[in-house]
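Task 17 of the worksheet. Students: predict the tertiary structure of the chain below and write it out as structure tokens. Keep your answer in the requested format; marks are given for formatting as well as content.
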Amino acid sequence: MGTPSYMAPEQAAGRSKQVGPASDVYGLGAILYHLLTGGPPFRAATAPETLEQVRTQEPVPPRQSQLKLPRDLETICLKCLEKEPHKRYASAAALADDLRRFLEGKPIEARSAGFVERGWRWCRRRPALAALAGVSAALGLALIGGSLIILALWRKAESEKRQAEFEKRQAQAAEQQARQLLAENETLFAEKEMARRELEDNLGRMRQMLTDYVQVVSMPPLQVDGAQPLRLEILTKAESAAVQWLQQRGDDSEMRAFLAVVLTQEGILLFHRGQQKEALVCVRRALEQGERLPRREASKPQHRNGLAGTWAWLGHTHEHLGEFSAALKAFDRASALWRELAEEHPSEAAYLGNHKLVQQDYFRVLVATKLSAEELVAAEQVLKDLMDKAEALAKRLPAKPDNAVWLVDFWLSVSATQLKMGQRDSARDSTRRAAAVLSQHDPGETLEAAQRPLWASRFLCVGHDLRGHKQFAEGLKFLERANQLYQQSYQGGAEQARVGLELGESWYQIGKAHYQMDQYDEAFVAFRQCVAVLKRIHEQAPSVGEYRQKLSLHWLRVAYWLSQRGKLAEAAECLSGVERLWPEDAERLREVAEDWRKLAAAIGQGRPELTPAEQVEGQRYRDAGDRLQRKADALIRDQTKPASEGLTPPVRQ
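Model answer:
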């Protein structure tokens, strides 16, 4: 609070609302008093007694101890020490101006308190004594009046005599002291300004330091799983610093936005560590900070983008905890924010990209959720609103291939959701809308090589869904376009395995479309192409389980379709291929053994009498099944047999 002898009365009385520039003027006046008299205006044996003097007593006029002191300088000093703040100089600058006027010999602004004013002040401080003194004065006024006048004249004469003796020396000292006070005043102003600028610089540096601190978390060396504890520690420290900052500095919108980012990143990290409940707390706190931003700050695109991301992670967390209704609401909020940003800033691809992703999240949760009748009605209305908004957004967006792909994905997601709701006709219509968008915006031969797999995957999805809606011929066109793009992209290298897998899937879907249209020869050509592509990928990387699994699955699928059309020998080749893929997998071998028996049963297509050749063929298939069954049983026995059987001595009791 300060030294009691130099504190303003409002500070000594604890009236903090009155503390201001006038309090600083009082402190400067106390310093001037000390310079003029050699001591502070108030000093008692203890600090509480000193504070009581500051609140209730008037300072002794400096000229009573320094007789040669100029009256104007005393007046300036006492004006600074007024009990009421409004009676002091309005500012330190006003005090400095009056000191300059004194030094230049000009009339000063301050006026000294008269006899009546000093008496009134005393009465206000001591009302009881004032009343008693008033009665006494009334009784003895006539007796002492003359004496007081004589005493006053005598004191005046003495004062003027002493003043004449010391006037020159005291004036010189006063001038020096006034100049010193003025210099100190200017130094104080300079120091305050320097401190203010230094504080602002420090605040800026601290904001930047915290921002850099969090950016470290995103550096590649800290993205590995083993670095998660360190990343969490960094984020926790940044959160603590931001919270402390807001507690000390009040409402700082930049720091509040920073805290929201930190809490969101904490939530994401906790989510990936499997601590979903803790993640939920962090993400909710981040949303609270974002919603407390001033309207002007909250409307900025970067803050709305961050808020949308936080809502999206809230949706993921609710989804993982099985709270699907809350997840849908969170995804919807995120989708709305990113859709608005995409409409306002169509050139910013990130906004539309995020909008696409969170829409997929929304539809995924909606399809996976078991809806009650009431929820189903609400979901239908939400779906209709989404469709209307998607169409409106599509009209505003520039005609770019990426935007067309998004619209295709949207209508495919709508179709899947409508199927979930049992609306097959509406689902078929939505798939056709996706097909129309894809056909309208297909770049054809101008499609860049890097974009071919992306577009091929959309043609594959649309063709697959049209086939599912029994639109076989129309679906086949899209499947063949997908196959064409995949063949243009796949050069057979091991590094293109992912594209090769999609090419194999497109061949299989083409085969099924032909098969469903009773075009069996074309179907089997496509099935063979599918197996050939997947076999090549597996042979290039036989240790990759995914490639082996894909080849095994499609060999079994093709074997089934071949057996349905009586092509048993070719189906048997497929089963032999599957057997070679899993030489040590007992469970797989048992499944293939059962497939061999089914293949044997398919000989003759249910005729009671088989030809000798058919009987031999059937026995060969049954023998293959029995052989695989025995091998599978032996593998299981070997796996369950104790490794050290007979070698461990009995334990003595």
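Marker's comment: The domain at 4-195 is CATH 1.10.510.10 (Transferase(Phosphotransferase); domain 1). The two ends are 82 Å apart (CA to CA).
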